[in-house]
Amino acid sequence: MKKIQIGYDAKRANANRTGLGNYSRFIIRALKESGSGDRLRLYIPKRKANTEYDELLTLPGVSSHLPDRPWWRVLSALWRTFFIAPQLKREGVELFHGLSNELPTGLRERGIRSIVTIHDLIFEVLPACYKPADRLIYRLKFRSACRRADRVVAVSECTKRDIVRLYGIDPRKIEVIYQGCDEMFAKEYSPEEIRAVAQRYDLPARYLLNVGTLEERKNLLEIVQALEHLPEEIHLVAVGKHTAYTSQVEAYAAAHGLKHRLHLLHKVAYRDLPLIYGGAEVMAYPSRYEGFGIPIIEALNMGIPVVAATGSCLEEAGGPATLYVSPDSPEELAAAVQRILNEEGLRERMAEAGHRYVERFHKEVIAKQMSELYDRVISL
For residue 301, what are the CA distances in angstroms to 142, 186, 283? Predict the structure, then answer.
């Protein structure tokens, strides 16, 4: 196929340091480091300081673009959704990829092919976790993007099923391309490096780890409740942004004599995260619903055994290398953790199986799948 100019909605790549930002940067870097000769143009409404975004711009053929008319720099939100298409056409973009659930209007009318990645429809599945106004906005944006896109990328089979069931999208229009994680999670770290980070964050000697925003859906309370059934020396370290739910978890821990075993870390340096994984006994991830579950593959890459919840897509992320429990049973969670701690050789077997399983999420695999999709869409 001839080399083309591909435009990206790169707002999250520039503005977000986790989640959608990590996914956006991963896709762009994976494509370039896997040999793509296409020109990748990253469109952002405003430039924010972000060294990880700046690193993308050192890759050959990657460039960053702001609104090309001064008035759109003031009305950047409108530009990103409703008025970017003329600029894309002027600048020769042939294919536009909305990396974070959205697509601008007017692409098809200007002959620009389009792809949108849908990460999850959790706001539809668990509406009580979202404000009514947010649900309405998300529904309008996500459903419209799915209908207008030439192809939809779902990050899991679970998300694909939700898109078909909730929005009536033809399953033939949807391609499942999994997410990957930063390569720093696949590196080997020395015990000295792990101990240094443990000292910096004052981590306990033995701990379960949970990573992700501390919100009700993530179900951190179940892990705290599981501590009541685990040995006193086993603590819980939870890394993520605090929300109102965090206070509920802290109150429970205090009321049940578990406060000293609960360690909540906020604003952890991203480069320290693999080393915090590296010191964990088990990664506990009993989330009630996810679009994929990146922390699971981060843990598996680090050789850390995982206990996750049934009920959404987590079996896709963890595969047969992970133990699964009900999101409503602290006793099941505690029993699974005890099994890993006590059953001879189980931890090592899970680590080996996990390393084999996560090969499907490596950047070379995902870049090949995405490049092949681009070729098919541009040929429509």
Answer: 31, 5, 12
Alpha helix stretches (DSSP H) within the chain? 11-15, 20-33, 51-56, 70-74, 76-78, 85-90, 122-125, 132-148, 157-167, 191-200, 220-227, 244-255, 273-278, 294-301, 314-318, 330-342, 346-357, 363-378
For the entire predicted model, the pTM comes to 0.93
**Residue 24, beta-bridge partner list:** none
pLDDT along the chain (380 residues), means of 10: 89 90 95 92 94 95 93 87 95 97 96 97 94 96 98 96 97 97 93 96 97 93 97 97 94 97 94 96 96 94 96 92 96 98 95 95 96 94
The closest alpha carbon to 67, from 56, 51, 48, 83, belongs to 83
- The helix/strand/coil state of 29 is helix
Task: Please give the torsion angle defined by the CA atoms of residues 88, 93, 94 and 100, in that order, rounded to the nearest 10 degrees.
Answer: -70
* The predicted structure's pLDDT at residue 73: 82
- pLDDT on residue 1: 56
pLDDT of residue 311: 86
- What the block records as the tokens of 312 is 């959404």
| Helix, strand, coil share (%) of the chain residues, nearest 5 | 50, 15, 35
pLDDT at residue number 98: 98
* Residue 253: other Cβ atoms inside 10 A: 20
Distance CA 246, CA 215 (A): 7
Closest to 274 measured CA to CA, from 298, 256, 293, 250: 298
Q: What is the DSSP string of 308-357?
A: EESSSSHHHHHGGGSEEE-TT-HHHHHHHHHHHHHSTTHHHHHHHHHHHH
Distance between CA 236 and CA 280 in Å, rounded?
A: 9
